[in-house]
Amino acid sequence: MSENIEVLYSENRKFPPPEDFAAQSKVPKDIYEKATANPLECWANEARKLHWHKPFTEILDWSNPPFARWFHDGEINVTYNCLDRHVIAGNGDRVAFYWEGEPGDTRTVTYKELLSEVSQASNLLISLGVTEGDRVAIYMPAIPEAVVAMLACARIGAIHSVVFGGFSAESLKSRINDAEAKLVITADGTYRKGKVLPLKPIVDEAVAQTPSVEKVLVVRRAGNDIDWAAGRDLWWHEEISSMDTTHTAKGFPAEQPLYILYTSGTTGTPKGILHSTGGYLTQVSTTHRTVFDLKPDSDIFWCTADIGWVTGHSYVVYGPLANGTTQLLYEGTPDTPHQGRWWELIEKYGVTILYTAPTAIRTFMKLGRQIPAQFDLSSLRLLGSVGEPINPEAWLWYREVIGAGKTPIVDTWWQTETGAIMVSPIPALTDAKPGSAQIPFPGISIDVVDESGSTVGKNQGGLLVAREPWPSMLRGIWGNPERFKETYWSMFGDKYFAGDGAKFDEDGDIWLLGRVDDVLNVSGHRLSTTEIESSLVAHDFVAEAAVVGASDETTGQAVVAFVILKSRHEQKISEAESVHELKAHVAKQIGSLARPRDIHLVDELPKTRSGKIMRRLLRDVAEKRAIGDTTTLADADAIKRIDEKLN
Ligand code: WT7
Fold it and tell me: The pTM is what?
């Protein structure tokens, strides 16, 4: 920690908005008062800033909870709002994306060009027989075509399911099958850490076991050799070139599904979180404009999230484009070809707003301030954080080293399920407090309650809930309404249970305290303990496995597994070889983001008398601290023996 940061930290102070920042902001000063007085009317006013093919007359239908309908008798086209509207308003020559590939190749795409490409892609989808309500899987790198593919689906009323390019063939397959996607859009490969990372072979492996898939559209990005299934595979560039560059967008009912995005839950199978259009677009555009204090004609916005995560959906694609924003899109990793690549990009493109994850910030902290110091970061005027709690030390470093000691920081809490930001400061209005996400967004009703549903006192930990429906809320879990009710609504009946622990401090600011369920957060990415355990026990060596999230300096949490090997395998290969093999197995089965940091081979696991594994105690072992309460263990000494073996 630098001396400077220590001083700031020890003062435990708040950071009021810089005067010039507050003075130039277009965010209305009475935004909280108005929203408190009439939240629904405020949301309706925000919705009316969008273009409706047919205006809505009803704001919210909550007659059949937890299934909300927002603006349901209105008709809207999401892509029309993201593209056509800006071109019609005379902003067609505004840059939508400055794109930079990892090798340094670049493209600039204006709103007019994006509209023309999306129109061609829409016509292509139609010619391939994709119609309203059909599912399209997208497995792509961060290239403009990924955005084009999403917007083309939205334009014709098809439902996209983007799968992060780091997921394995197995994970891709199960997501395609759950959604019964008809088409897969992918690329030959992408660049990662200076090398070509092939994607098409993963799709080939997945699609061998997905009966619903009729065609695979392939964007040529990396030029790597790939296998080709004649009749099934089509080159994007060949197909699109003959398509008309115009397509008339029609309005769809506001509750038309927009996308499915799979996220890990507390069971082994990922949940297909379902979002719809009118309410979603309203909240992503409003929060993007307000939380990021947006000036569409001068800001260069850079959200570093991949489009495979909800942050990429809401704050690379739908929110920023609905607001006519100019953005930077970068394909590669932060450390290629050198550790200052991000800062170089900020200097090169004059990025004004940076939205990233605490894990990235902590990685840069470790590398040292001399790296960003080599670049001119003076264009930055606002910094954002998302994905996990940001520790005050990282917050202060971010502000001081990246934000020249003056840019406001917004720590934004939300989830795949919430679709858009729910808790965050508003940078022009809020005195920022390092480490706290602070205040519910105007019109959002958040509470911290105990297990009986009563609000807890200040500085007491509790469970974060949403008391009222919100426009961008999930509309369900694809194909599983019962799981939707059970997961989020059965705990309190009338309140949405987020799965996060939280507290209000003495000022009433909200602090997020991490997940309270069996969900891990590794580098801001959600993983399920059960899913990793299932993967481990599926391996021939493994008799039993328990997975916990142990705190990690860089990634927030890390995957730590405790594994009992089957006795017949114990002698055959060394412990080190078994561990290596099992780590690779999990990466292959789920994706490299799930690869355990540590695998401990043990002879037993701590269990209750009813046979439930007590992961809480294993977490104590993994984090090398005193073992907690063991009174419910069947064999209280089991955990002691594990601890002795490992620590
Ligand atoms: C979980 C949601 C929201 C997009 C990225 C992750 C954690 C997210 C914060 C924050 C503390 C946060 C929560 C949440 N989380 N943002 N600002 N402070 N925790 O989306 O994969 O759906 O994960 O991420 O635990 O429940 P996700």
Answer: 0.94
